């Protein structure tokens, strides 16, 4: 390198060690690599093992000389599930055991590759990992947070202290009226109900660890120099304007998965290997099955990487899907059903009906599935990645949220964006059958037209001069300027 040439910034990215955040932040890492920035992604050893087992992530990033992947322990035993009702234990362990190791990584020379890159100039970390900001402030490195959950749910988190002060929380789970409107989340007063609040709000206990953790979100996220969000102004502008009263510097750069494709399409370089950061083995036979189906005839069913169904819930969904008469592609993760003997409970006639109109896989290449012309609807848990991917693909949704932000997202899908039907708090075969038919037959034209309109907004924001395109350029510029100041 010429001695007069300033070396590129060195950004460290630390995702929350779950499928959704890991998926989003590898895409962000690649976007920064394309902008000429050196990037180190730090993942937990558990996540690293799954990436090596199921993806080609290292081959993909070998094409970027400025990229490196490093690991850090999460402090949990190898057999810990790291999900479900054990979810909060992951945060506790990261804070207690990973924080000092994270500081050691930043203050040692282990990331400089024997002097071939600068020490870390800038940190981008998941905003739920508050210890990263503590460390950044201690050693004087600027930090920007990423939140891979939805802005609409993050805004609810920001308002939790106000909800508690106003007496809207706690409310008792035994109360019958779950449809009482919530009045202290500005901008949502006319449609957000008790049943749409994040799942921990149903506990009726302000001392619960989740309530305590999330009620400090506004204070925590405002400590960083900015907040990166996987959304776009045309989708979430009304919520973003509220959020800016607490976190003024927002970078809405979504849909991330498509912004990356758009940037790659402008590069003149040799095509890169197909990208995947899946933590499960993808079964691509489903794509061949979809090829045999008519346009917009199939409902895709997936409840994401964390949700667990009971055997009873599984059977209600199975009967409802079969009885709807609509072809379906269903992802049933190997660990997604409570109990190990559920397969033996599937009646012969149900299996036969599934062979006729359904296809079941353990995991699917979801972005490709949603983009397939045979897909006409998405029965989803409404994780934020899945929701944004569906919006971009122009696929209407049936919402069956599992926990946390998904309950808020599903309400926005049905009542704000008018992109589908919210089926939360129900799980019976007749409701499932009717809702699938409503989306795929009765109201198909209505939802398809609205989804197509919103998909066009999403495409436009990624073009040169579009909102997400410009926000990414501003982020890159700010990384350079913050580096030169500190």
From TrEMBL:
Statement: the UniProt record of this protein carries the keyword NAD: no
Transmembrane segment boundaries: none
Its EC number(s): 2.4.1.323
Substrates-to-products reaction catalysed: 7-deoxyloganetate + UDP-alpha-D-glucose = 7-deoxyloganate + UDP + H(+)
Keyword list, A-Z: Glycosyltransferase, Transferase
GO process annotations (BP): (-)-secologanin biosynthetic process
GO molecular function: 7-deoxyloganetic acid glucosyltransferase activity; quercetin 3-O-glucosyltransferase activity; quercetin 7-O-glucosyltransferase activity
Family matches, as InterPro entries: UDP_glucos_trans
Enzyme class, UniProt record, top EC level: transferase
CDD domains xrefs: GT1_Gtf-like
Keyword Transferase: yes
PANTHER family named in the record: GLUCOSYL/GLUCURONOSYL TRANSFERASES, GLYCOSYLTRANSFERASE
Record family assignment: Belongs to the UDP-glycosyltransferase family.
Descriptive protein name: 7-deoxyloganetic acid glucosyltransferase
Organism: Oldenlandia corymbosa var. corymbosa
